[in-house]
Amino acid sequence: MTNNIILRLAIQRKGRLSEDSLSLIKECGINFSSDTSKLKSEARNFPIEFLFLRDDDIPDYVADGVADIGIVGENVAIEKGKNIDHVKKLGFSKCRLSLAVPKEINYGGLGFFNNASIATSYPNILRNYLKENNIQAEIHEISGSVEIAPGIGLAAGICDIVSSGSTLLSNGLKEVETVMHSEALIIGNQSLSTEKKELLRKLIFRIESVQKGKNSKYILLNAPNGRLEEIVRLLPGMRSPTVVPLAKKDWSSVHSVLNEDEFWEVIEKLRAAGAEGILVVPIEKMIVWLLPMALYFT
Ligand code: PRT
Ligand code: ZN
User: By alpha-carbon position, which residue is closest to atom 22 of ligand 1?
Assistant: First the structure.
């Protein structure tokens, strides 16, 4: 038992990470008040407390142990360079950190940035990237509205977060290099007690079950027994498909789980193999012990 031990999770108070972070926790069956105007909130049915903070402060709080874990963009986790564990990528708030230049520039490669100045809010990531690529550039650190820097003559280019690309476009810029890809990430304090690690393991187990469910579909179909072998071969299932006889002679019902990525391709093959009455049902949660999580906790 983990009596009175509470895991403290830092979540962005307001911004691009907040909503998806809160929904993910709720999908894990954890009930709490998501009123982020408060500083803290405690769950009613899981030993976890939420701290609502600015995303830039979260790596510090986690490194110092004020929070045990936090959800931030990988870009922030890496930029802050704190001693924290990167526990689990969450698959939302996907974006990239890119170099961009005015669209009229005839860009011929990274050499363009030699002896040029680049405006960014990510000086550490940019410095490493330039070093790895042997480029000598001057880094102008600015905290917001980076995209206006070339237009006002502050820098030749910028290094900033890009998602749809429309901010660059509306500021007359074009993306020329990707420095890193980023998504939301759970970070963790490096000296969590055994009890807190156990709570974190439980939380991640739930998160992975929700994510796996979202990426999978439950499929039911009818098949003539003569084609069963071929159809079963197309459906891996969690272990193997379930096959039950139909009331109609020489027919069976086959149930299985399909991954979203291979879904349409397999459906086509099933149809060609004689499957009929195919039903597809969403899966709320799928309980599987996944390897990356097992590795983190061993
Ligand atoms: O107030 P607080 O400090 O907590 O929040 P913030 O304003 O610093 O961060 P926020 O909420 O903007 O972003 C939080 C995290 O979301 C970032 O650290 C990224 O990991 C991730 N993320 C995903 C993004 C974007 N997409 C994004 N599009 N962060 C910022 N942007 C900005 C970008 O800076 C640029 O101004 O959106 C603009 C570009 O978007 P497009 O779609 O026009 O390309
Ligand atoms: Zn921020």
Answer: 93
